[in-house]
Design goal:
single chain, 461 residues, mainly alpha, Fumarase C, Chain B, domain 1, Fumarase C, Chain A, domain 2, Ribonucleotide Reductase Protein R1, domain 1, 3 domains, two-stranded antiparallel ribbon, two-stranded parallel ribbon, elongated
Length: 461
C-alpha cells in the first residue's frame, strides 16, 4: 500500500473501497506533463528564494525530467494506490532522490497544484480547439469558393423561401465558427492566470516569488485572492460553454448535411470513404459521421450542465466535489477536437448535385418576394404588392404552375402595371444578383466575404 501524503493524521489504513471511490488517478494521470512542468517551475523558484539550495533544485529538476520521460514511455501503472497524479509524481521523485523529494511540496498544496495543472491543460486545449476551428473554416471557405455559381433554395421553417447562392449558405457557417473562435480566443485571458502560491486556501508562510513562476510557465498574471484561486472553476465552465455553442453550430451543419444527402432532397453526395452501410439492407449508404457529430453535441451539453450543477452549492474554498471538473473537461475537449477534425475532412468529401439544386430552386414560388419588389418599383406600396402576389400564387397553385409559367395576360389580370420585363424578375437564377448589398447573397458580396475570410485565415489562391 502506497503511503498517503496526508497519512500522519490517521491511525487506520484507508479502506480499499474508499481508495477506489476517492482516487482520480484513473483520469487525472493525463495531467502529468503539466504537473511536472509546474513542479519544475516551483522548484526553481524555491531555490531562487533560498528555501532550498541550488544543488538540491538541480537534483530535483533532473529527477523530474526522468520521471516525465518514463511517463511518456508508459513505464508507470496508474493504480488506485496513488490517489492522484500529484501523489504518483511525488512518490516517483522520492524513489529517485530520497527525502530531498519531500522538500518540493514546500509552500504549496494539492489545491493550488491542481488548479495550476488544469489551467495549463485548459490553455493548451483551448489553443488546440482554435486551430481546429480554423481548419474547418478553411474547408468551408474552399467549398464555398468552388461552388460560387450554384443557386439553391434558401429556407425558413424548412420551407423553400428565396433563392440564395450556395456559397452564401456555406459562409453563414463560417460566420458561426468565426464567433466560436473568437469566444475561445477571448477566454484564454481568463484561463491564463497563475494560481500557484495560494497553497490550500490562505497562502503560504514562505516568501514565494509568484511572478517568477508565472513568467516561467507563460502566465499573463497571478491570482489576486488565494481563496478564489483554489476554488475557481469558471474557466472550465467557460470552456464547456464555448464548446457547447461550437457543437451546436456543428450540429446544425451536420443536420443539413444529413437532410441534403437524403433522396428526398438529393442536394449532395458524400464520398463512400466518409459513409457507412447497413448490416441488413445492401443498398444503404448512411451519413453516419454528421449524425455522430449531431449526437455528440448532447454529450458536451451534459458536461456543462453537470459541472454547473456541481459548482452551484459549494462553499469556499476547495471541496472534493470539484474533482468532477476534470472528466467533463477532458471528454469535452476530446469530443470537440475529433468532431472538428472529422468536419474539416468531411467537407472536402462533399459533391453538390447542380441539376437537382437548380430544379429545387425553380419550384415553390421562391421569387414571390422579387415579384412584390417589382410591383413596388411600379409605384405600388409593399403591403398592396404583397397581397397581389399572394393572390397570384393561389391562382398558380390552382393551375399547377409556377409564377414564371403564367402568361403575361394572366398576370395583368392581377395588376395592369405588370409588363414583359416581369419575366426577368421571375427567373430564380437571377434573384441573388439583385441582392448585392453588404451581407447579402449577391455574387459580388459573397466573393468579397470569401476573399476577406481567406485573407484572415491566410489562405493562398
Amino acid at each position: 500500500m502506497t503511503k498517503k501524503v496526508w497519512g500522519g493524521r490517521f491511525s487506520q489504513e484507508t479502506d480499499a473501497l474508499v481508495n477506489r471511490f476517492n482516487a482520480s488517478i484513473g483520469f487525472d494521470h493525463r495531467l502529468y506533463p503539466y504537473d511536472i512542468e509546474g513542479s519544475i517551475a516551483h522548484c526553481r523558484m524555491l531555490a531562487n528564494q533560498g528555501i532550498i539550495t541550488d544543488e538540491e533544485a538541480t537534483d530535483i529538476v533532473e529527477a523530474l525530467g526522468k520521471i516525465k520521460r518514463e511517463l511518456d514511455h508508459g513505464e508507470f501503472s496508474f493504480d488506485e494506490d496513488y490517489e492522484d497524479i500529484h501523489g504518483l509524481v511525488e512518490k516517483a521523485l522520492v524513489d529517485k532522490v530520497g527525502a530531498l523529494g519531500e522538500k518540493l511540496h514546500t509552500g504549496r498544496s494539492r489545491n493550488d497544484q491542481i488548479a495550476l495543472d488544469v489551467r495549463l491543460y485548459a490553455r493548451d486545449a483551448t489553443q488546440g480547439v482554435i486551430d481546429l476551428i480554423k481548419e474547418s473554416r478553411r474547408a468551408l471557405i474552399r467549398l464555398a469558393e468552388e461552388n460560387l455559381d450554384i443557386v439553391m433554395p434558401g429556407y425558413t421553417h424548412l420551407q423553400r423561401a428565396q433563392p440564395v447562392l450556395l456559397a452564401h449558405h456555406l459562409m453563414a457557417y463560417n460566420e458561426m465558427l468565426k464567433r466560436d473562435c473568437e469566444r475561445f480566443q477571448e477566454s484564454i485571458r481568463r484561463v491564463n492566470i497563475m494560481p500557484l502560491g495560494s497553497a490550500a486556501l490562505a497562502g503560504p508562510t514562505f516568501d514565494l516569488d509568484r511572478e517568477m513562476v508565472a513568467g516561467e510557465l507563460g502566465f499573463d498574471s497571478i491570482s489576486q485572492n488565494s481563496m478564489d484561486a483554489v476554488s475557481d472553476r469558471d474557466f472550465v465552465l467557460e470552456f464547456l460553454f464555448n464548446a457547447s455553442v461550437l457543437m451546436m453550430h456543428m450540429s446544425r451543419l451536420s443536420e443539413e448535411l444529413v437532410i441534403w444527402s437524403s433522396q428526398e432532397f438529393g442536394f449532395i453526395a458524400i464520398s463512400d470513404a466518409f459513409c457507412t452501410g447497413s448490416s441488413i439492407m445492401p443498398q444503404k449508404k448512411n451519413p453516419d459521421l454528421p449524425e455522430l457529430i449531431r449526437g455528440k453535441t448532447g454529450r458536451v451539453y451534459g458536461h456543462l450542465i453537470s459541472l454547473l450543477t456541481t459548482m452551484k452549492g459549494l462553499p469556499l474554498t476547495y471541496n472534493k466535489d470539484m474533482q468532477e471538473d476534470k472528466e467533463a473537461l477532458f471528454d469535452s475537449s476530446d469530443t470537440v477536437q475529433i468532431c472538428l477534425e472529422v468536419m474539416a475532412r468531411l467537407l472536402g468529401e462533399i459533391t453538390f448535385k447542380r441539376e437537382r439544386l437548380k430544379e429545387a430552386t425553380g419550384k415553390g414560388f421562391l421569387v414571390a418576394t422579387d415579384l412584390a419588389d417589382y410591383l413596388v418599383r411600379k409605384g405600388i406600396t409593399f403591403r398592396e404588392a404583397h397581397e397581389i402576389v399572394g393572390k397570384m400564387v393561389v391562382f398558380a397553385l390552382g393551375q399547377k404552375r409556377e409564377l414564371h409559367e403564367l402568361a403575361l395576360d394572366e398576370m395583368k389580370d392581377f395588376n395592369r402595371q405588370i409588363d414583359e420585363d416581369v419575366y426577368e424578375w421571375l427567373d430564380p437564377m437571377l434573384a441573388p444578383a439583385r441582392r448585392n448589398i453588404p451581407g447579402g447573397t449577391g455574387p459580388d458580396m459573397v466573393k468579397k466575404a470569401i476573399e476577406e475570410a481567406k485573407k484572415e485565415l491566410g489562405i493562398d489562391d
